[in-house]
Request: fold
Amino acid sequence: MKVLNNIDAIMYQELLDKKKTLAVIGLGYVGLPIALEFAKKIKVIGFDINAERVHMMRNKIDPSQELKSADFDGCDIEFTNELDVLRKANFFIVAVPTPVDEHNVPDLIPVTRASETIGKVIKKGDYVVYESTVYPGCTEEDCVPIIEKISGLKMTEDYKIGYSPERINPGDKEHTISTIIKVVSGCCDESLDTIAKVYELVVKAGVHKASSIKVAEAAKIIENTQRDLNIALMNELSIIFDKMNINTYEVLEAAGTKWNFLKFQPGLVGGHCIGVDPYYLTYKSKKLGYNSQVILAGRFINDAMAGYVARKILQHIIQGSDNVKAAKVLVMGATFKENVSDIRNSKVADVVKELKAFSLQVHVTDPHAESKELKHEYGFELTPELDNDYDAVLITVPHDKYKKLDDKYFASITKEQAIVADLKGIYRNTISSRKYWSL
Reply:
């Protein structure tokens, strides 16, 4: 193992001895698990600008509903939204969101504001590691100049910068921060080794040292871009197979018997990773003079799926109803994926919008989503009590609670001519009393 120089070795040792403090800026679904994991080993400051969220975490409540109260036990952590407290830190990890705007252009406001915050509190000898997903070059070209303008310090000479892409998967209790190999990078050899050693404190699976910050940034972007493109292929295949009157999941099941067949499924692609990250890469690509073709084609297919699904529902209702405007649709599932409460960038909202545009009455239910959050974000609420005369039921997200339902249940809440539209195929070969359709 390479020996750290004296200054960097002191940083690592003093974190271990709790003479220095690590701070995590941004305590969402990525930042909070990281902060708590480090707090089991070293002294941590958890910083978030949202005072209400800070209050909840002080009371051992995860606002993202991913962690339990017991996960806060035994952690040496101070939650705060005050800069004076943050100034006590020496090793900063930035885990703020990086969304896109309504035109699918990267919105760097959270990460640039976090950089401004760091610029106000950073000191000579400190470390800054970004985990937020960005396009290659963003850390050094967009964030570092902000820190240096405010602090007057110089990267490498006065402080060290690194990048380590987050690999948190909401709702996944198997693949956690400690069990997934962590990619790390630094602005110099010494910073790379120190950052690697710090992360090795909590990542049992080990670390992979990238050759540069840009390489680490690019690695994160293509992880989700690859998944996006594969799901886009499945979605396009589902459209084709639907015209052939064959079930996509039966085709995938048969093809999946070959050892090297990649097992992806069709569906709505939302959330704050797969449906967002490719746009960061294509944005940077365009600025460099290259217009992406394959990546944007995949994005077009996936973004269009909400409209496709809504039209399929409408077609069935038109065939079986004399009064389309009186027809009712129940949408089951509003979060962006199964078994989570997160509704950010949920493509279910797009389906609801499309259905309402056809003047259909739309009810929405979800065992994990918060009604007030849906109202604030998308303008609709959860339906408190279900009816028994729906013309269509659309299951968008395969929550575990939904998997227990059966044909009898759907018959009890629908008309005889209703359709059960099951996007993820969880009720395949079990619905017999109603028309059944899936992607």
Summary: The two ends are 51 Å apart (CA to CA). The chain is about 40% helix and 15% strand. The first helix runs from residue 6 to 16.
